[in-house]
Amino acid sequence: SDPGMTLAACQAPPPVGWESILETECQFVARPAGEASVELHLAAAGVQTWFQDIFIRPDSVPAHGAPDTAIQESAFLPVREHWLKKAINTWRDHSTLKALEVLAQGSSDEGVEVSLPKILASYVLACIRRMQSLWGNLSPQSLMTTKDLCQRFSPQGEWESSPMRGFALHPRLPYIAIARQDDAIELKNLTQPDHRIMLRDKKQQSIMCLQWAPHCNSLLAVGTSTGVLLWNVDPTVATTRLLTSWVRVETSPNHTPVSALSWSPQGNFLVSVSPSDTNLITWDIPMGVATRVKRAKGGGLALVSWSPDGQRVFAASVSAVFRVWETKSWTCEKWTHPSGRCKAACWSPAGDILLFTLEGDPSIYYLSFHGSELGAGSLAAIKCADLSPCTHMVGGEEIVVGGDVQSMVWDHSGERLALIFASDSPSADMVAVLRARTSPMVEMLPGGFIRGHEGEVPLLIGFYDNCVEGALLATAWSSGRLSFTPLHFQPSHPPSFPNPLAPPHTIHSANIPLYSGHTPTHHSLRQHSPLLGS
Q: Relative to the CA of 246, which of 85, 163, 239, 393 has its CA 20 to 30 Å away?
Protein backbone atom coordinates (compact mmCIF):
# COMPACT_ATOMS: atom_id res chain seq x y z
CA SER A 1 0.00 0.00 0.00
CA ASP A 2 0.98 3.65 -0.48
CA PRO A 3 3.06 4.75 2.54
CA GLY A 4 2.13 8.40 1.94
CA MET A 5 4.39 11.41 1.65
CA THR A 6 8.03 11.14 2.73
CA LEU A 7 10.36 13.85 4.03
CA ALA A 8 12.74 13.23 1.14
CA ALA A 9 10.28 15.14 -1.08
CA CYS A 10 10.34 18.23 1.18
CA GLN A 11 12.43 21.32 0.60
CA ALA A 12 15.91 20.90 2.09
CA PRO A 13 16.28 22.40 5.58
CA PRO A 14 18.40 25.53 6.19
CA PRO A 15 22.01 24.84 7.17
CA VAL A 16 23.15 25.27 10.76
CA GLY A 17 23.70 28.97 11.46
CA TRP A 18 20.82 30.05 9.26
CA GLU A 19 17.49 31.34 10.60
CA SER A 20 14.10 30.66 8.99
CA ILE A 21 12.04 33.78 8.22
CA LEU A 22 8.85 32.81 6.38
CA GLU A 23 7.14 30.62 3.84
CA THR A 24 6.01 32.29 0.62
CA GLU A 25 4.58 30.57 -2.46
CA CYS A 26 5.37 27.15 -0.91
CA GLN A 27 9.04 28.10 -0.55
CA PHE A 28 10.69 28.41 2.87
CA VAL A 29 12.99 31.42 3.12
CA ALA A 30 15.99 31.52 5.48
CA ARG A 31 18.93 33.88 5.98
CA PRO A 32 22.35 33.64 7.61
CA ALA A 33 22.15 34.78 11.21
CA GLY A 34 22.56 38.55 11.48
CA GLU A 35 22.09 39.34 7.77
CA ALA A 36 19.38 41.74 6.54
CA SER A 37 16.38 42.69 8.66
CA VAL A 38 13.42 40.38 8.94
CA GLU A 39 11.07 43.31 8.26
CA LEU A 40 12.53 43.79 4.75
CA HIS A 41 11.93 40.16 3.84
CA LEU A 42 8.37 40.23 5.18
CA ALA A 43 7.54 43.51 3.44
CA ALA A 44 8.87 42.17 0.15
CA ALA A 45 6.64 39.10 0.49
CA GLY A 46 3.57 41.19 1.32
CA VAL A 47 3.10 39.68 4.80
CA GLN A 48 0.54 41.65 6.82
CA THR A 49 0.27 39.70 10.10
CA TRP A 50 3.50 39.32 12.01
CA PHE A 51 4.68 39.87 15.60
CA GLN A 52 8.05 40.53 17.18
CA ASP A 53 9.85 37.84 19.18
CA ILE A 54 9.03 37.50 22.88
CA PHE A 55 11.72 36.54 25.38
CA ILE A 56 10.99 34.70 28.65
CA ARG A 57 14.12 34.40 30.73
CA PRO A 58 14.52 31.51 33.22
CA ASP A 59 13.52 32.65 36.70
CA SER A 60 16.03 32.18 39.52
CA VAL A 61 13.43 31.86 42.29
CA PRO A 62 11.78 28.54 43.23
CA ALA A 63 8.38 27.75 41.76
CA HIS A 64 5.61 29.79 43.36
CA GLY A 65 3.80 27.81 46.00
CA ALA A 66 6.33 24.97 45.89
CA PRO A 67 9.30 25.88 48.12
CA ASP A 68 12.25 23.59 48.42
CA THR A 69 11.61 21.83 51.72
CA ALA A 70 15.12 20.38 51.90
CA ILE A 71 16.66 23.86 51.70
CA GLN A 72 14.30 25.16 54.37
CA GLU A 73 15.05 22.31 56.75
CA SER A 74 18.83 22.67 56.34
CA ALA A 75 18.66 26.23 57.70
CA PHE A 76 17.73 24.99 61.19
CA LEU A 77 19.68 23.07 63.82
CA PRO A 78 18.42 19.55 64.56
CA VAL A 79 16.00 19.39 67.48
CA ARG A 80 15.33 16.31 69.64
CA GLU A 81 11.66 15.44 69.19
CA HIS A 82 9.38 12.93 70.86
CA TRP A 83 8.88 10.02 68.43
CA LEU A 84 5.11 10.56 68.26
CA LYS A 85 5.47 14.30 67.65
CA LYS A 86 8.04 13.65 64.93
CA ALA A 87 5.71 11.18 63.19
CA ILE A 88 2.79 13.63 63.39
CA ASN A 89 4.89 16.48 61.99
CA THR A 90 6.10 14.26 59.15
CA TRP A 91 2.53 13.23 58.35
CA ARG A 92 1.40 16.87 58.30
CA ASP A 93 4.33 18.16 56.19
CA HIS A 94 4.71 15.21 53.84
CA SER A 95 2.42 12.17 53.76
CA THR A 96 1.18 9.14 55.68
CA LEU A 97 3.77 6.97 53.91
CA LYS A 98 6.61 9.22 55.08
CA ALA A 99 5.28 9.13 58.65
CA LEU A 100 5.23 5.32 58.57
CA GLU A 101 8.82 5.33 57.31
CA VAL A 102 9.84 7.50 60.29
CA LEU A 103 8.22 5.07 62.72
CA ALA A 104 9.68 2.02 60.97
CA GLN A 105 13.22 3.40 61.23
CA GLY A 106 13.00 3.10 64.98
CA SER A 107 12.63 5.75 67.63
CA SER A 108 13.43 6.23 71.29
CA ASP A 109 11.91 8.10 74.18
CA GLU A 110 14.37 8.81 77.00
CA GLY A 111 16.37 5.74 76.05
CA VAL A 112 13.44 3.33 76.02
CA GLU A 113 13.06 1.59 72.66
CA VAL A 114 9.56 1.98 71.26
CA SER A 115 9.29 -1.43 69.63
CA LEU A 116 5.51 -1.84 69.11
CA PRO A 117 5.03 1.23 66.86
CA LYS A 118 8.15 0.25 64.95
CA ILE A 119 6.90 -3.32 64.35
CA LEU A 120 3.42 -2.17 63.33
CA ALA A 121 4.76 0.54 61.03
CA SER A 122 7.19 -1.90 59.40
CA TYR A 123 4.41 -4.41 58.80
CA VAL A 124 2.05 -1.79 57.30
CA LEU A 125 4.85 -0.44 55.12
CA ALA A 126 5.66 -3.92 53.82
CA CYS A 127 1.99 -4.48 52.90
CA ILE A 128 1.72 -1.09 51.16
CA ARG A 129 4.91 -1.65 49.16
CA ARG A 130 3.78 -5.11 48.13
CA MET A 131 0.48 -3.70 46.89
CA GLN A 132 2.32 -0.87 45.12
CA SER A 133 4.58 -3.38 43.42
CA LEU A 134 1.65 -5.46 42.19
CA TRP A 135 -0.29 -2.40 41.04
CA GLY A 136 2.83 -0.87 39.53
CA ASN A 137 3.22 -3.86 37.22
CA LEU A 138 -0.24 -3.08 35.84
CA SER A 139 0.00 0.71 36.09
CA PRO A 140 3.63 1.93 36.26
CA GLN A 141 2.60 5.60 36.37
CA SER A 142 0.94 4.99 39.76
CA LEU A 143 4.42 4.77 41.31
CA MET A 144 5.71 7.95 39.63
CA THR A 145 6.02 11.26 41.45
CA THR A 146 4.06 14.31 40.31
CA LYS A 147 7.19 15.81 38.78
CA ASP A 148 7.95 12.59 36.90
CA LEU A 149 4.37 12.42 35.59
CA CYS A 150 4.59 16.02 34.38
CA GLN A 151 7.89 15.36 32.61
CA ARG A 152 6.73 12.08 31.07
CA PHE A 153 3.34 13.19 29.76
CA SER A 154 3.86 16.86 29.01
CA PRO A 155 3.35 17.94 25.35
CA GLN A 156 7.00 19.02 25.34
CA GLY A 157 10.00 16.83 25.99
CA GLU A 158 11.89 19.18 28.33
CA TRP A 159 9.11 20.23 30.72
CA GLU A 160 11.22 20.47 33.88
CA SER A 161 14.05 22.61 32.47
CA SER A 162 12.13 24.72 29.94
CA PRO A 163 11.63 28.46 30.66
CA MET A 164 8.14 28.05 29.14
CA ARG A 165 5.90 25.14 30.09
CA GLY A 166 3.08 26.07 27.76
CA PHE A 167 1.40 28.90 25.91
CA ALA A 168 -2.08 29.71 24.61
CA LEU A 169 -2.85 32.17 21.84
CA HIS A 170 -6.11 34.07 22.33
CA PRO A 171 -8.71 32.94 19.73
CA ARG A 172 -10.14 36.44 19.24
CA LEU A 173 -7.57 39.03 20.29
CA PRO A 174 -3.80 39.55 19.72
CA TYR A 175 -2.84 38.26 23.18
CA ILE A 176 -0.92 35.27 24.45
CA ALA A 177 -0.80 33.53 27.85
CA ILE A 178 2.60 32.00 28.67
CA ALA A 179 3.13 29.50 31.49
CA ARG A 180 6.54 30.17 33.01
CA GLN A 181 8.87 27.81 34.84
CA ASP A 182 8.16 29.60 38.14
CA ASP A 183 4.44 28.68 37.83
CA ALA A 184 3.37 32.21 36.96
CA ILE A 185 1.30 32.94 33.86
CA GLU A 186 2.36 35.96 31.85
CA LEU A 187 -0.23 37.66 29.63
CA LYS A 188 1.26 39.68 26.79
CA ASN A 189 -0.15 41.92 24.07
CA LEU A 190 1.43 40.73 20.81
CA THR A 191 1.30 44.23 19.35
CA GLN A 192 2.82 45.77 22.51
CA PRO A 193 5.07 43.07 24.01
CA ASP A 194 6.41 45.41 26.71
CA HIS A 195 3.05 45.37 28.49
CA ARG A 196 2.34 42.31 30.60
CA ILE A 197 0.04 40.96 33.30
CA MET A 198 1.22 38.32 35.79
CA LEU A 199 -1.16 35.69 37.19
CA ARG A 200 -0.07 33.89 40.35
CA ASP A 201 -1.88 31.71 42.86
CA LYS A 202 -0.70 29.32 45.56
CA LYS A 203 -2.74 26.52 43.93
CA GLN A 204 -1.07 27.13 40.56
CA GLN A 205 1.74 24.59 40.73
CA SER A 206 3.45 22.51 38.00
CA ILE A 207 1.51 23.89 35.03
CA MET A 208 1.14 21.36 32.21
CA CYS A 209 -1.36 22.99 29.86
CA LEU A 210 -3.54 26.06 29.36
CA GLN A 211 -6.23 27.14 26.90
CA TRP A 212 -8.46 30.17 26.34
CA ALA A 213 -12.20 29.59 26.22
CA PRO A 214 -13.76 30.15 22.77
CA HIS A 215 -16.25 33.02 22.40
CA CYS A 216 -15.07 34.53 25.68
CA ASN A 217 -12.46 37.24 25.94
CA SER A 218 -11.46 36.67 29.54
CA LEU A 219 -11.67 32.99 30.61
CA LEU A 220 -8.44 30.95 30.76
CA ALA A 221 -8.28 27.30 31.89
CA VAL A 222 -4.99 26.03 33.36
CA GLY A 223 -4.09 22.39 34.06
CA THR A 224 -1.82 21.99 37.10
CA SER A 225 -0.69 19.43 39.67
CA THR A 226 -3.53 20.59 41.97
CA GLY A 227 -6.40 20.49 39.47
CA VAL A 228 -7.94 22.85 36.94
CA LEU A 229 -7.67 26.58 37.59
CA LEU A 230 -10.06 29.00 35.87
CA TRP A 231 -8.84 32.57 35.54
CA ASN A 232 -11.32 35.29 34.64
CA VAL A 233 -9.10 38.20 33.66
CA ASP A 234 -9.32 41.01 31.14
CA PRO A 235 -6.14 40.74 29.03
CA THR A 236 -6.71 44.20 27.54
CA VAL A 237 -5.77 45.90 30.82
CA ALA A 238 -2.41 47.48 29.99
CA THR A 239 -0.96 47.31 33.48
CA THR A 240 0.77 44.79 35.70
CA ARG A 241 -1.80 45.32 38.48
CA LEU A 242 -5.03 43.41 38.02
CA LEU A 243 -8.09 45.49 38.74
CA THR A 244 -10.80 42.84 38.32
CA SER A 245 -10.10 39.12 38.19
CA TRP A 246 -10.89 35.91 39.99
CA VAL A 247 -9.50 32.42 40.01
CA ARG A 248 -11.52 29.28 40.69
CA VAL A 249 -10.03 25.87 41.36
CA GLU A 250 -11.84 22.81 40.03
CA THR A 251 -10.73 19.59 41.73
CA SER A 252 -11.80 15.98 41.57
CA PRO A 253 -10.46 12.96 43.54
CA ASN A 254 -7.31 11.41 42.04
CA HIS A 255 -7.47 13.71 39.01
CA THR A 256 -4.00 15.25 39.28
CA PRO A 257 -1.80 16.30 37.66
CA VAL A 258 -3.98 17.55 34.79
CA SER A 259 -1.96 16.78 31.66
CA ALA A 260 -4.39 18.07 29.03
CA LEU A 261 -7.68 19.94 28.74
CA SER A 262 -9.93 21.07 25.91
CA TRP A 263 -12.96 23.37 25.57
CA SER A 264 -16.14 22.51 23.72
CA PRO A 265 -16.62 24.75 20.65
CA GLN A 266 -19.39 26.65 22.47
CA GLY A 267 -17.21 27.22 25.52
CA ASN A 268 -19.71 25.95 28.10
CA PHE A 269 -17.97 22.61 28.75
CA LEU A 270 -14.37 21.72 29.50
CA VAL A 271 -12.81 18.24 29.44
CA SER A 272 -9.66 17.32 31.36
CA VAL A 273 -7.52 14.22 31.80
CA SER A 274 -4.78 13.02 34.12
CA PRO A 275 -2.22 10.18 33.76
CA SER A 276 -3.15 9.03 37.27
CA ASP A 277 -6.91 8.87 36.58
CA THR A 278 -8.67 6.44 34.23
CA ASN A 279 -11.67 8.75 33.88
CA LEU A 280 -12.36 11.55 31.46
CA ILE A 281 -13.93 14.46 33.37
CA THR A 282 -16.32 16.96 31.80
CA TRP A 283 -16.79 20.26 33.62
CA ASP A 284 -20.04 22.16 33.15
CA ILE A 285 -18.55 25.61 33.70
CA PRO A 286 -21.75 27.73 34.05
CA MET A 287 -23.30 25.17 36.44
CA GLY A 288 -20.05 24.30 38.22
CA VAL A 289 -20.65 20.52 37.97
CA ALA A 290 -18.11 17.80 37.11
CA THR A 291 -19.09 14.48 35.52
CA ARG A 292 -16.82 11.44 35.30
CA VAL A 293 -17.02 9.52 32.04
CA LYS A 294 -15.97 6.09 33.28
CA ARG A 295 -14.00 3.52 31.34
CA ALA A 296 -12.47 0.17 32.30
CA LYS A 297 -9.10 -0.41 30.67
CA GLY A 298 -6.09 1.41 29.28
CA GLY A 299 -4.70 3.15 32.36
CA GLY A 300 -4.66 6.90 33.01
CA LEU A 301 -5.20 9.46 30.27
CA ALA A 302 -2.55 11.73 28.77
CA LEU A 303 -4.20 13.55 25.82
CA VAL A 304 -7.65 14.99 25.13
CA SER A 305 -9.11 17.12 22.33
CA TRP A 306 -12.67 18.23 21.56
CA SER A 307 -13.44 18.24 17.83
CA PRO A 308 -14.20 21.68 16.32
CA ASP A 309 -17.71 20.56 15.31
CA GLY A 310 -18.43 19.53 18.90
CA GLN A 311 -19.54 16.01 17.99
CA ARG A 312 -16.53 14.04 19.28
CA VAL A 313 -13.86 13.98 21.97
CA PHE A 314 -10.53 12.24 21.44
CA ALA A 315 -8.87 10.83 24.58
CA ALA A 316 -5.57 8.89 24.61
CA SER A 317 -4.41 6.73 27.50
CA VAL A 318 -0.87 6.28 28.80
CA SER A 319 -0.90 2.80 27.21
CA ALA A 320 -1.48 1.71 23.61
CA VAL A 321 -5.19 2.59 23.72
CA PHE A 322 -7.12 5.67 22.67
CA ARG A 323 -10.84 6.36 22.35
CA VAL A 324 -13.05 8.62 20.30
CA TRP A 325 -16.24 9.57 22.18
CA GLU A 326 -19.37 10.90 20.53
CA THR A 327 -20.87 13.63 22.71
CA LYS A 328 -24.62 12.91 22.36
CA SER A 329 -24.75 9.77 24.51
CA TRP A 330 -21.04 9.58 25.47
CA THR A 331 -20.41 6.23 23.85
CA CYS A 332 -17.00 5.50 22.38
CA GLU A 333 -14.90 3.66 19.84
CA LYS A 334 -11.72 2.07 21.13
CA TRP A 335 -8.50 1.83 19.14
CA THR A 336 -5.31 -0.05 20.02
CA HIS A 337 -1.82 -0.39 18.62
CA PRO A 338 0.93 -2.76 19.81
CA SER A 339 3.86 -0.38 19.22
CA GLY A 340 3.08 2.24 21.86
CA ARG A 341 0.82 5.01 23.10
CA CYS A 342 -0.60 7.84 21.03
CA LYS A 343 1.92 10.69 21.29
CA ALA A 344 0.20 13.54 19.44
CA ALA A 345 -3.15 14.19 17.76
CA CYS A 346 -5.14 17.02 16.21
CA TRP A 347 -8.51 17.54 14.50
CA SER A 348 -9.13 19.09 11.09
CA PRO A 349 -10.92 22.47 11.20
CA ALA A 350 -14.16 20.78 10.14
CA GLY A 351 -13.83 18.15 12.87
CA ASP A 352 -14.22 15.18 10.52
CA ILE A 353 -10.54 14.14 10.28
CA LEU A 354 -8.30 13.07 13.17
CA LEU A 355 -4.55 12.96 12.64
CA PHE A 356 -2.41 11.10 15.18
CA THR A 357 1.07 9.72 15.74
CA LEU A 358 2.32 6.80 17.82
CA GLU A 359 5.29 6.39 20.10
CA GLY A 360 8.08 4.52 18.33
CA ASP A 361 6.48 4.92 14.88
CA PRO A 362 7.69 7.79 12.61
CA SER A 363 4.39 8.06 10.72
CA ILE A 364 1.20 10.11 10.64
CA TYR A 365 -2.12 8.27 10.50
CA TYR A 366 -5.65 9.55 10.08
CA LEU A 367 -9.22 8.52 10.84
CA SER A 368 -12.18 10.05 9.01
CA PHE A 369 -15.67 10.51 10.51
CA HIS A 370 -18.97 11.24 8.78
CA GLY A 371 -22.08 12.21 10.71
CA SER A 372 -22.59 12.16 14.45
CA GLU A 373 -23.48 8.48 14.94
CA LEU A 374 -21.08 6.06 16.58
CA GLY A 375 -19.22 3.98 14.00
CA ALA A 376 -19.86 6.48 11.19
CA GLY A 377 -16.19 6.65 10.29
CA SER A 378 -13.08 4.76 9.26
CA LEU A 379 -12.81 1.07 10.00
CA ALA A 380 -9.04 1.32 9.63
CA ALA A 381 -6.41 3.97 10.31
CA ILE A 382 -4.63 5.07 7.15
CA LYS A 383 -1.02 6.21 6.94
CA CYS A 384 -0.73 9.57 5.17
CA ALA A 385 2.92 10.46 5.85
CA ASP A 386 6.13 8.52 6.40
CA LEU A 387 8.49 10.52 8.64
CA SER A 388 11.34 8.01 8.68
CA PRO A 389 14.77 9.68 8.81
CA CYS A 390 16.23 10.67 5.45
CA THR A 391 19.20 12.74 4.31
CA HIS A 392 19.29 16.09 2.48
CA MET A 393 22.48 17.53 0.98
CA VAL A 394 22.82 21.20 1.95
CA GLY A 395 25.93 23.12 0.94
CA GLY A 396 27.92 19.92 0.59
CA GLU A 397 26.89 18.71 4.05
CA GLU A 398 24.43 15.99 4.98
CA ILE A 399 21.47 16.97 7.19
CA VAL A 400 19.28 14.15 8.50
CA VAL A 401 15.61 14.90 9.08
CA GLY A 402 12.74 12.82 10.45
CA GLY A 403 11.90 10.62 13.41
CA ASP A 404 9.16 10.20 16.01
CA VAL A 405 6.76 13.11 16.53
CA GLN A 406 6.59 14.89 19.91
CA SER A 407 3.72 17.30 19.17
CA MET A 408 1.60 18.35 16.19
CA VAL A 409 -0.80 21.23 15.35
CA TRP A 410 -3.11 21.95 12.40
CA ASP A 411 -3.82 25.51 11.28
CA HIS A 412 -7.27 27.11 11.00
CA SER A 413 -7.38 26.83 7.19
CA GLY A 414 -6.56 23.11 7.27
CA GLU A 415 -3.70 23.58 4.78
CA ARG A 416 -0.63 23.59 7.03
CA LEU A 417 0.45 21.01 9.59
CA ALA A 418 3.38 21.80 11.90
CA LEU A 419 5.16 19.21 14.01
CA ILE A 420 8.08 18.87 16.42
CA PHE A 421 10.23 15.76 16.49
CA ALA A 422 11.12 13.87 19.66
CA SER A 423 14.28 14.94 21.49
CA ASP A 424 16.14 11.78 20.42
CA SER A 425 15.35 12.35 16.71
CA PRO A 426 18.07 13.61 14.35
CA SER A 427 16.01 16.72 13.48
CA ALA A 428 14.92 17.66 17.00
CA ASP A 429 16.30 21.17 16.41
CA MET A 430 13.80 21.97 13.62
CA VAL A 431 10.06 22.36 13.10
CA ALA A 432 8.63 20.53 10.09
CA VAL A 433 5.76 22.16 8.19
CA LEU A 434 3.72 20.02 5.78
CA ARG A 435 1.03 21.09 3.35
CA ALA A 436 -2.32 19.39 3.94
CA ARG A 437 -5.39 18.64 1.86
CA THR A 438 -8.68 17.14 3.05
CA SER A 439 -10.72 17.23 -0.17
CA PRO A 440 -11.38 15.17 -2.20
CA MET A 441 -9.16 12.96 -0.03
CA VAL A 442 -6.90 13.36 2.98
CA GLU A 443 -3.37 13.97 1.79
CA MET A 444 -0.12 15.30 3.24
CA LEU A 445 2.05 17.16 0.71
CA PRO A 446 5.75 18.07 0.89
CA GLY A 447 6.63 21.21 2.81
CA GLY A 448 9.77 22.48 4.49
CA PHE A 449 11.60 23.06 7.77
CA ILE A 450 11.96 25.96 10.19
CA ARG A 451 15.20 26.46 12.08
CA GLY A 452 15.74 28.86 14.97
CA HIS A 453 18.88 30.50 16.29
CA GLU A 454 21.96 28.33 16.56
CA GLY A 455 21.71 26.02 19.57
CA GLU A 456 17.94 26.43 19.96
CA VAL A 457 15.53 23.48 20.10
CA PRO A 458 11.76 23.88 19.53
CA LEU A 459 9.67 22.84 22.51
CA LEU A 460 6.12 24.04 21.79
CA ILE A 461 4.18 25.14 18.71
CA GLY A 462 0.81 26.72 18.02
CA PHE A 463 -1.02 28.65 15.29
CA TYR A 464 -2.40 32.19 15.59
CA ASP A 465 -5.72 31.70 13.83
CA ASN A 466 -6.66 35.28 12.97
CA CYS A 467 -4.74 35.40 9.70
CA VAL A 468 -6.49 36.21 6.42
CA GLU A 469 -3.66 35.20 4.11
CA GLY A 470 -2.01 31.99 5.23
CA ALA A 471 -1.06 31.17 8.80
CA LEU A 472 1.21 32.41 11.59
CA LEU A 473 3.20 29.76 13.47
CA ALA A 474 4.30 30.49 17.05
CA THR A 475 7.29 28.48 18.31
CA ALA A 476 8.67 28.35 21.85
CA TRP A 477 12.41 27.63 21.80
CA SER A 478 14.66 26.20 24.51
CA SER A 479 16.39 29.58 24.91
CA GLY A 480 13.18 31.18 26.20
CA ARG A 481 12.43 32.86 22.87
CA LEU A 482 8.94 32.79 21.37
CA SER A 483 9.07 33.40 17.60
CA PHE A 484 6.37 33.99 14.98
CA THR A 485 6.91 32.63 11.47
CA PRO A 486 4.48 33.75 8.71
CA LEU A 487 3.36 31.01 6.34
CA HIS A 488 2.16 33.10 3.40
CA PHE A 489 -0.27 31.37 1.04
CA GLN A 490 -3.77 31.77 -0.36
CA PRO A 491 -6.13 29.31 1.36
CA SER A 492 -8.34 27.29 -0.97
CA HIS A 493 -11.29 28.04 1.33
CA PRO A 494 -10.70 31.24 3.36
CA PRO A 495 -11.50 30.51 7.03
CA SER A 496 -14.10 32.51 8.93
CA PHE A 497 -13.08 34.29 12.14
CA PRO A 498 -15.08 35.21 15.22
CA ASN A 499 -15.92 38.87 15.63
CA PRO A 500 -13.57 40.20 18.35
CA LEU A 501 -15.99 43.06 19.06
CA ALA A 502 -18.94 40.77 19.77
CA PRO A 503 -19.97 40.69 23.44
CA PRO A 504 -18.27 37.78 25.19
CA HIS A 505 -20.08 35.18 27.26
CA THR A 506 -20.30 36.02 30.96
CA ILE A 507 -18.98 33.43 33.40
CA HIS A 508 -20.24 33.61 36.98
CA SER A 509 -18.40 32.23 40.00
CA ALA A 510 -21.04 30.22 41.84
CA ASN A 511 -20.56 28.49 45.18
CA ILE A 512 -22.07 25.18 44.08
CA PRO A 513 -20.86 21.55 44.02
CA LEU A 514 -18.17 20.75 41.47
CA TYR A 515 -18.48 16.99 41.44
CA SER A 516 -21.33 14.77 40.36
CA GLY A 517 -21.53 11.04 40.76
CA HIS A 518 -23.48 10.64 37.52
CA THR A 519 -21.85 8.13 35.16
CA PRO A 520 -23.00 8.10 31.51
CA THR A 521 -23.36 4.71 29.88
CA HIS A 522 -20.88 3.71 27.23
CA HIS A 523 -19.55 0.80 25.24
CA SER A 524 -16.26 0.07 23.55
CA LEU A 525 -15.78 -0.82 19.90
CA ARG A 526 -12.39 -2.27 19.07
CA GLN A 527 -11.26 -1.46 15.55
CA HIS A 528 -9.51 -4.23 13.61
CA SER A 529 -7.10 -3.21 10.86
CA PRO A 530 -3.55 -3.96 9.71
CA LEU A 531 -2.40 -0.74 11.37
CA LEU A 532 -4.51 -0.71 14.51
CA GLY A 533 -5.31 -4.30 15.28
CA SER A 534 -6.18 -5.68 18.69
A: 163
CA distances from 478 to 157, 159, 181, 326 (A): 11, 10, 12, 38
Residue 403 and residue 344 in contact, taking contact as beta carbons nearer than 8 Å: no
* DSSP, res 314: E
Angle at 142 between CA 137 and CA 146, to 5 degrees: 145
Q: Is 89 helix (H, G, I), strand (E, B) or coil?
A: helix
Residue 155 — pLDDT band, cuts 50, 70, 90? confident
pLDDT digits over 275-302, tens only? 988 899 999 988 888 888 876 566 789 9
What is the spatial distance between Cα 238 and Cα 163, in angstroms, rounded to a whole number?
A: 24
Q: For residue 321, which of 339, 294, 348 has the smallest C-alpha distance?
A: 339
DSSP per-residue codes, 321-346: EEEEEETTTTEEEEEE-SS--EEEEE
> What is the pLDDT averaged over residues 34-51?
70
Strands (DSSP E) found in 99-190:
108-109, 112-113, 164-169, 175-180, 185-189
Give the pLDDT score at 374.
57
What pLDDT score was predicted for residue 150? 86
Q: Among positive and negative, which fits the CA dihedral 158, 159, 165, 169?
A: positive
CA angle 463, 160, 183 (to 5 degrees): 75
Which helix (H) or strand (E) segment holds residue 286: the answer is none
Which 8-state DSSP code applies to residue 128? H
Q: What pLDDT was estimated at residue 347?
A: 97
How much is the pLDDT for 371?
A: 63
Distance (Å, whole) CA 387 – CA 390? 8
Order of strands, edge to edge, in the sheet holding 260-263? 260-263, 269-273, 280-284, 289-293
Q: Is the pLDDT of residue 70 over 50?
A: no
Alpha carbon distance 162, 157 (integer Å): 9
3-state secondary structure of 111: coil
Residues 505, 267: contact at Cβ < 8 Å? yes
* Mean pLDDT of all residues in 148-160: 85
Reference 333, options 290, 282, 281, 369; nearest CA is: 369
Give CA–CA dist 272/256, Å, rounded. 10
What region, left, alpha or beta, does residue 172 occupy, with left being phi > 0 and alpha being psi -120 to 50 degrees? alpha
Contacts of 154 (CB under 8 A, 6+ apart): 165, 208, 259
pLDDT tens, position by position, 378-410: 678 899 999 999 999 998 899 999 999 999 999
Distance separating alpha carbons of residues 291 and 513, to the nearest angstrom: 11
Q: Residues 6 or more apart from 7 whose CB is under 8 A from it?
A: 386, 387, 388, 389, 390, 401, 402, 432
